[in-house]
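Q: Sequence in, structure out?
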Amino acid sequence: MPLYEFQKPLYLDEKIDQFHYDCGKCPSGILNLSLYIKTKDLTLQNKIKKINMSNVQCAQCNNKPACNADTFFESQLFCWEKEFNKWAAKKGKKICKKEMCFISVDKIEMSLVQGCGKCTGQKNLTKCSNCSKSLCNTEAALPPPIKCHFLADNFLPHVKINKTCHYVYDSCYIARDVFGRVEQNCGECPLKYQNCIKCNNDFCNEETLFHLTTIQTTKITTSTTIIKFTNKSLVQGCDKCTGQKNLTKCSNCSKSLCNTEAALPPPIKCHFLADNFLPHVKINKTCHYVYDSCYIARDVFGRVEQNCGECPLKYQNCIKCNNDFCNEETLFHLTTIQTTKITTSTTIIKFTNKSELSLVNKTIAATMRSVKSKANPNIDQINYKLIFVYFLIKILMIL
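A: Exactly. Output:
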């Protein structure tokens, strides 16, 4: 005799949560259960007239009369079931005859997997846990997830917070980009970062993981300390600047723990504007001590980027400067044009940029040959064509 349990969320706050008993084997077709499940909601009445029994938990028995009691159903083992490519787990519809449920992590797909069976029978899974009670294979059966610091540029407000990671992660990372900005999160180091450190303990992804380069000396003749740069990072230690190599902006001091950033010259200040920074408004920025220049760049679509440091390689149109807030748009000097009428019925266009001049000369020569090939060319027509050619070239150079 089959015994079914209905736990289906329905309209509003009403929910079917009751058993249905019958003779025979567990059905898999469409049944009309409106005679057994009573509700005042007309929408629900119509729904329960066509219940797909293949989506309902069912247990069957044949060992004695009236064996399909509530206690029989409750003693059966059902498991949560979820494949790696599904968003949420569902209650298993059939009794788990393997006497164990499991929950684990698919590290390749970065997803939870749940089902009926033992961990030993699964492949390519980690953090696997077994349990033997009905619907026991929830996330609570897994080891506690790792906790990490979280900080990202595209997350507002831009403040470091504590985050409990998803169960698929077992590590934290901290990364620093070429502009000195820090990112902290759960998981492995993203490939886009060259300067990144991974760790495996709760809240381990602190900035202190970026170990400062140390300098050891065997003989110290004076009580001095230094602060300096190497590979775009700070270096601090015990010694004089004169004894160091390949370092810049070096400052000496002679008090205990005096070699802080305050001992360095003030950092440069630049305008900052980037497409991936919101709001998209130019702001004033105090650069990191490793920078001593600003830049302004314009991409092929005319969008402007302003920041600290050297010109990025991806830009062909970029200007660097070395003073506070020097990276203004006025650095992009506009090409000047002078037009003069000549008695020989020609128009001269003077370019200040040599590369533009070469390109225009070739184009004008081709235009003149085309016009002169016609009988009695109109002088105004020649002038208009030359001016049109010039503006066409300017548009193409901007694009």
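Confidence is low (pLDDT under 50) at residues 7-15, 212-224, 334-352.
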